[in-house]
Every structure is written in C-alpha cells, then in structure tokens.
Design a protein that fits this description.
Length: 214
C-alpha cells in the first residue's frame, strides 16, 4: 500500500504535538539532565543545545513582527495549523521558531504545533529539502481537512542560497559557513523571513493543497 501525506499527518498525530512553550521547557529540562531532544548526548550536541536555548530566549524577548505582516495575520480568513518539525540542537530552529511563534499568536485562525524530527521520521521524509532532513520545516495545513497548503524552511531563501554555496565551497570550512549563517540571522532580525511569510500567507489563503518533498 502506498504511503501518502494524508495517511501520515493524521488527527491523532496533531493531537500528540506539543506547543512552543512545552517545546522550550522540554529542551531546557533535557539539557539540565545533560540530554538532547533526540538523545544524541555528545558534548558538541549539548553545546549546540546550550547555544540554542540562549538564541531562543533572545529572540523571544527581541523579535518584532512588522505592522504590515501583523495586519495580514490578524485578518487571515482561513483556519490553519502550522506543524513545525524541529529539534532542540538545531541552530536554524532557534533562530526562526520565536518568530513563527509570535506570528501564529497574532492570528485567531492559526495554531502552532511542534513535533521532533527524529520521533517522526515518516513525516520528515515527506518534506525533505534537496533530499535532506533539514529543519526547521513548517507545514501549513488546512485545520479542517489536514490538507497540505504549503511549506516553509529550513531557513529564509536569501541565506539558504548563500549558506549552501559556502558549504559546497571546499575553500570555506563548515565552521566558518555556520558562523556566517548565524551572523546573518543576528543582523537580519527576521526581516527576510517575514517578507517570505507575507507572500506565503497570500498563497495559502487560496487554499490550494500542495504535495510534500519540495
């Protein structure tokens, strides 16, 4: 029997998701026990988690949603669920999730729900990025039918192209590419991401189901 997105993203799965607040509490609780969200408890993964707790906390306090986007979110007419695939050690998730949380909170029609990538590989494998299990990945769902309206992630297109180019360049160390990536996040302050969501909200408003693996 062929596996489809409809058979994987079920009402039962949605009911077993966690909120943003539950997720941040979980990441902190596990870190306090020298653990990560996928139990890869090596020192470097714990260090990534520590950094990401700080990044998430920073953006929870400092992230600002533009007035234009805020208005679009407040006026969004359809009920949507934003299902985000993430992990506590993921640097891109720490940079983006606080903005996603604040965006969802501005709309009465958008619910934000999170799952951990390595607990739901069957979901992740329907939403790969160039064949990779890259996170965070936001899946926009019609709340009534659970049809996929579209996706976003793992990072804004502007920096995605730069980062992938640097990772493919043998003259640039992966560590340097990562440092450049997080410097960009610090300087951009969520602006590129919000510009993308302005366009995406318009597309999702049309309520046209999309397939995965994009």
């Amino acid at each position: 029997m062929e596996t489809t997105v409809d058979s994987i993203i079920t009402r039962e799965l949605i009911e077993n998701t966690i909120s943003f607040e539950e997720y941040t509490d979980l990441v902190q609780q596990l870190f306090d026990e020298d653990r990560t969200t996928n139990e890869d408890n090596r020192p470097d993964m714990l260090e990534y988690t520590k950094l990401n707790i700080h990044r998430t906390s920073k953006w929870n306090k400092r992230a600002r949603i533009s007035e234009e986007l805020a208005q679009e979110l407040k006026n969004f007419p359809n009920r949507m669920t934003w299902l985000v695939i993430t992990e506590g050690w993921c640097g891109d998730a720490a940079q983006s999730l606080p903005f996603i949380h604040k965006m969802a909170g501005l709309s009465d029609n958008i619910e934000l729900k999170l799952i951990l990538r390595d607990q739901y590989p069957e979901v992740m494998d329907e939403f790969l990025t160039n064949g990779s299990r890259s996170i965070p990945k936001l899946i926009a769902l019609d709340s009534e039918t659970l049809e996929v309206l579209g996706t976003w992630g793992p990072r804004p297109k502007e920096i995605q192209e730069v980062y992938m180019s640097e990772r493919a360049n043998p003259e640039i160390e992966n560590k340097v590419a990562s440092e450049n990536l997080h410097l960009w996040y610090a300087r951009n302050k969520g602006k590129a991401m919000q510009e993308e969501f302005m366009q995406l909200l318009d597309e999702w408003k049309k309520n046209e189901p999309k397939t995965g693996n994009r």
